[in-house]
Write a structure and sequence with these properties.
This protein is mainly alpha-helical. It has a domain of about 55 residues: Orthogonal Bundle (434 Repressor (Amino-terminal Domain)), CATH 1.10.260. Helix content is about 35%, strand content about 0%. α2 crosses α3.
Amino acid sequence: MAVTGKMRLPATAIPIAGQSVKQVISVPDQLGPILKAARKTAGLSQTALAKKLRVSQSRVSDMELYPRSLTLEQFMAILSQLNLEMTLEPKKAAGDDKPSAW
């Protein structure tokens, strides 16, 4: 998942107040903290998000703690409710993060 931006921030960084931040997810376990941070940034409790998703609060907790349990449909619904989108792009090769002047 990627959202545009230049700085590489920790996996729990989330866009704030319209700022765009790139989130790189390489393994499923990185997704839980990102979803939790996005939910909190959106000002939603687990209960409030659960109501929007038509699931129980405990299911939202499970999704955040065990993101491997998410179906693609559930993941896309969460992104929609949190006003996020997913972008897929080719993985950068080692050394691609050097300044372009090099």
